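Hello forum,

I keep getting stuck at the same step: I have a sequence, I want structure tokens, and every attempt I make locally crashes halfway through. Rather than fight my setup again tonight, could one of you with a working pipeline run this one for me? It's a single chain of 659 residues.
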Amino acid sequence: MDNEPKVTSVVPTTSINNSPDPSIKLPPIVRSGILHKNGGLEYDQEGVPYYKFPPFVKTTITGSTTVPFTAFKPNGLRVLLDLDEEQVDGLGIPTVQLEVKHEPGGKDAKKKRKYKKKLDVTFERRVMWWEDWEEGENLRRGDVSDINLPRVDRFAQGAADFQKNRKWTPTLQSVYDNFTQYVGLTGKTNQFIGKGFASAKRQAKELEEDLMDVEEDDDEAEFVKALKTDTIISPPLPPTSKEARIQELTAEYDAELERRELNLQAFLDDPESRMKIFFSSFYKNKGLFWSESKLRDGPILLRFFFKFFIRNRLMRDYENAFHKALAVIEKAAVELPLTTKISKSIPDDFGSACVAVWGKQMVEIVEKERQKMLELRQANKKETELPSDSISTSEDNANMNTDVNANTTGWGSDPFNTLSQTSENPSAWTPFEIPKQWDPTADSNPNAQQDSDPWGATPNPNADWALPPPPFLMSLLGGPIALPATHQVKLVEKSTRKVLSVEFSETHLNNKQRSSMFSGFAKVILAPWKDRKQKEGEKEGSILPPELHIINPPSTPSSVDDPTQRNISVYVSPSTSTMLRDATGLGLYGVFVKVGRVESPPVKQQESTPASKGKRKPKSLPEDPDSEFWYIEFLYEVSPSFWTESDEGFEEGEGSDDL
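Reply #2:
Ran it on my machine without issues. Output:
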């Protein structure tokens, strides 16, 4: 038993080629320390065969050759188009399908990856929508088959052709929808003809069919005839809720169709003025004025629209009018985006520095007017209300307590002496101090009754969210100045003014010699806005009349003039003046402050003596350019130069207000 071979492999001996015959008895040990071979097996000195894994045995198969490992080339696996197919290798021989999917090998599978040199990254500019539209725009054609069609039909058909095969962003679609609703091409008519209107029509048709069936019936025909010939006239029944709703929707539908027709006729009669209204008052009322993208894209979109009509000659009899409207659009393309830039840059550094010195004048004026209104209301209230203390009746005197020694701390008494305290507002509750025993936290927390964050508290200038401090006027003027002591606010004007011209500063023109302390700034000449509705009975537009507040009147009242009727010169920073150079004609609605020298008390003139009559009078001093100046305290709104109010009674429709 000890000499039996030890099997240490899982491979059965019968599967090995050239294995010895089981009937042959192998010698257990032939010689000590010598290996013997029998049938392709090797035995140790104890007669135990050696097994190698795998047992590569030299064998020859008839008709085949064994490829050496050095000459072996893998053919890979064929990609299975169907998972149910049998997997084969590159030679078509079936193979055992592996559970793990490997990437197919190749010639360069085991090669070391070579890192390529990094190329210079170039970022391409994003193509804007109008650049995309420009490609092939001249090839677009409108199809108006019959030029004898009414102008409304031709305009509607041309607008439909313009909208085809274009990429529309949400901003463009919003602007175009507002435009088509403004001119009357489209409207919200779908909401008027809804399910209720259709179902009502269907019910009316069913009732009519039922009535016809009744008339055809012989038995019920006489009854129907009797009803028709009855002389009794009954009052009409009130309409049901469904019928009333149908009548209401029908009336709204008819009104919408009438509005659209009127808008189309008005637009085709005068396209130039309608485009002025669209890009001014309509743009503001619909909320499009506060979107930078719509201020930029709106004029460009309608430029494509009108050029499409002019190029294809869809409205031949209106080409001159469309050219005038196109000129308004070109001006809007420049001015509308500029309104946002100016609103963000004004007040500039100079105006902010002046506000830091002389304060917010308009805020103080509004606060004073509010205090005056409160005082007038309180005075009127005191006059209209009769004090109850002055009225006494016999019943009150009868129930009066006449005991002077009565307990003064009982019900209705005043233990904290609150009634003797006076208050500015007699109708308000009289405040009194909370007793200490009512507030147990008073000792532990002495600040318990104080507001942790009172209104009007001075903000922390070091906070991250705080605005940067305004620049110093002294640093802007180039050195120490005495303006806060020698100058004071004279006038405050709140109005809309038109930009006439811009005079650049001497420093900006490379002139080193300064004739004034304000030579480093630019002058903006502003004129009153006179294109405003001032007739009685007319609806007041967006351009409000000017407000003038005299803060420190001059000593001589005759010298007071109305600055709202003449031009003024406002100082601005050089960076702002460069922007306003292209803003000629734009309207600035804001607060303009005039600062002048503090006037000294008038000196009495001495009577002329005979000795002084022969003397020459001293020459008058030249006018001081620094005696007075204007600055912009606050800017509310910037209007385009072609601002036009909408006509009275002109319904602008229900455009979308989305931004």
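The chain has a mean pLDDT of 72. If your local run keeps crashing, start a new thread with the error log.
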